[in-house]
C-alpha cells in the first residue's frame, strides 16, 4: 500500500487509527490529579456551603499530544517506507535484466549494481528465474535463466568495459530467451547514450510482449570525454566534450602521466555556458611531452576520459639537409621546401648552418635527431661517413630523396637500402611513361601496409635500383604501373620484351636529321632486362624525307644504321632477340618512288652494318615501313602498288636469312594497313614471314569504341579482336573487304 511517496509494509495495522476517537473520549473523562491541602476544619465547613463543581479535564494540548503518540505507534507498526522503489510483478514468470556495462556506465556503476541487486532480490523472494545480460560482454556470454543466487554471482562478476555497447545483438539474445518465458518482466539499466541500431534493438525486445518493462537511466548525461590529444609545435592540444545543452560554465583538469603512472603535467579546459566543447594546451618542452603515456580528466572514472598515447603521439627531432647553397638562398626552389612543410606540424625540425656536408652532418648529429632527411644529397664525405654509418647502426633513421646529385654519385652501400643503377637512372626513353604515375597499394611487408596510398601524389621521375633477388622485400612503395607486367605477359602465353632506345635526338650538324640514342650503358641494362624476363628488345631509328632540305643525309642513314647494328649485337650477346626498326616516315610530301629509294638506301646500309657487327641475321626481326607515298603528297596508292614496290624493295635489300618481317602501320588507318598487308602476301610466296606490328592501325578502332567508358569495355574488346583477326587473315593473304562489312 502506498500514499504519495510513502508506502507501508503492514498496511492492515493502520486500522488501529480508528481507535483514536475512543482514546480521545477516555482522556476527557480523566479526573484531575489529587492535590495536597492543609486541613483547617473551619475552612472545610465553609466549602460545604458552596455549589457543586464539575470534575477537571486534561488540557487540550495534552490530549492532542497523547493522540499523536498513539497514531505514531500505529503507523510505526504498519512498517512505513518513504519513496519506495518500484517492484516488478514477476511472480509465476521471470525477470530479465539488461544492463549497459560499456565505458559510459563506469561513472555510476555502483548505483547500477545496487539497483540490479534489489531487483534480483525481489525475483528471489518471488521464486522466479532471472535472465541477466550485459550489452558490452562477449557475444557468447551466458545469460541464463539463473536462480537468484547465480544471478547475483553473475552480476558481481561483471565490470564496466572500455568498449561500446552492442545492444542489437544482446537484445536479440534476450528476446529469444524470453520466448521460452512468457509473461516475464524486463528491466533495462541504460547508460543514457544512444547508439546506431538502438531503435531496431528496442523493437525486437518489445515484440516479446513482456508483462512489464522498466527503463532506468540517469536524468542527464554527466559524462565528460577527452576526444583529442595532439602533440603540436607549441604543446599538447587537448579537446574535451560534455553533454550538449548544459547552460552552466565548467572547468575540468587534464593530467598527463608517464609509463609509470606519475603525473608530470596538467592543463585546465573550460566549458563556456551552453558549449559542449572545451580546449586547452599543455605547454611543456617536447622532450617531456614525449614521456607522456596517457592523458586523463580528473574525477572521471571511465574510458572516454582517458587518451592512451603511443609512438605516433611523440614528437621527434628531425634533421633536414640539402647540399647546395642555392637551396638556402632560394627556399621556394629548395627540395627541402615541401619536406619542411610536410613535417613541421609533426616534428621538431633542425637544420645545419652550413651547406658543406663535412660541417653540416656533424652539426645535425650533435643535436641527436631521431631522423635525418637528405634532399638530393650526393656522395657523403669520407671524414664524416663513418660517423653517419654508426648513427644509422645505432637506431637512427636516414631518408634520402633521389635527384640528379644522388643519381650522379657513386653508390653508398652502407647508406642506401639498395644499389642504384649506374648510367641511366632517371626514368625516360625506353622506360618512360606518358603521364605521371600515382603510387599503388603499399606492400604488405612494409611499414605503410595499412595506409591508403595518396591519390593526389604522382611521380614523373624515378631513380632505378639494381635488380636483386631481395628487391621486392626491400621495396616499400611502387608506382601504379609497377605491377610485374612480365608475369602478366607470360601468363597470357606471350613473350615479354622491352624498348631500349631513349628516343631520337637532332643529329648535330645536319638540320632535319635525327639520331637515336641509348647505347651508353646498354650492355648492363640488357643484362638486367634479361634477369627481369625480357627475351626481345626494340630500337627505332627515324628517317624523315624532305627532298627540298636534302633530308635524309647519307650521314643520318649511316649513323642510324650503325647504332642499330651495335644495339643488335649487344642484344644477341645478352641472349635477347633484337627487333631492328629503320622507319622511313610517311609524313612528308614525297612520292612512292622517293619512299622506295630512301628505304632502299636505308636497308642496304643497315644490313651492311649488321654484317660488319657480326649479327646473326637468323636471330633478328625486321620492323620496316611499307613503301607508300607521303601523307602530304595528296596521293593515295592502291594496295597493289604498295605491295609491288614493297616486295621489290625487300627482294633487293633483305637477306633471305632474316626469318620474319613485321610491318609498321606508319600512320595508315586500320583498313588501309590491313588491305596493304593482304596485297603484299597475295603476291607471294616470299622467303620471309610477313606479318604486322601495328600500333595505331590496330588500336584506333578499339579506342574509339571504348571512349574511356566502363560501359564500353566489351565494345572496345570486340573491336580490337575484330581488327586483330582481320590483320591475321591479311598476313595469310586471305582478307577481303566484305569481311569488314560483315562485322
Supply database-style keywords:
single chain, 743 residues, 4-stranded parallel β-sheet, 4-stranded antiparallel β-sheet, elongated
Structural write-up:
β8 (224-231) and β9 (236-242) form a beta hairpin. The chain folds into six domains: 2-82, no CATH class; 95-216, von Willebrand factor, type A domain (Rossmann fold); 224-313, Immunoglobulin-like (Sandwich); 315-396; 417-483, no CATH class; 491-658, TIM Barrel, CATH 3.20.20.70. It has 22 helices and 28 strands. Helices cover 34% and strands 18% of the residues. The chain is elongated. The strands form nine sheets. A four-stranded parallel sheet has the order 5-4-6-7, sandwiched between helices. Strands 11-10-13-14 form a four-stranded antiparallel sheet, with no helix packed on it. Strands 16-15-17-18 form a four-stranded parallel sheet, sandwiched between helices.
**CATH fold node name of the largest domain:** TIM Barrel
Instruction: Report the uncertain regions.
Output: 422-432
Total count of helical runs of at least 4 residues: 22
Radius of gyration: 48 Å
Strand order of the largest sheet: 5-4-6-7
Beta-strand content bin: 15-25%
Average pLDDT, all residues: 80
CATH-derived architecture of the largest domain? Alpha-Beta Barrel
Per CATH, the class of the largest domain reads Alpha Beta
CATH superfamily of the largest domain: Aldolase class I
Number of domains: 6
Shape, principal axes of CA atoms: elongated
Q: What's the total number of strands?
A: 28
The structural class is: alpha/beta
Indicate the percent of residues in helices: 25-40%
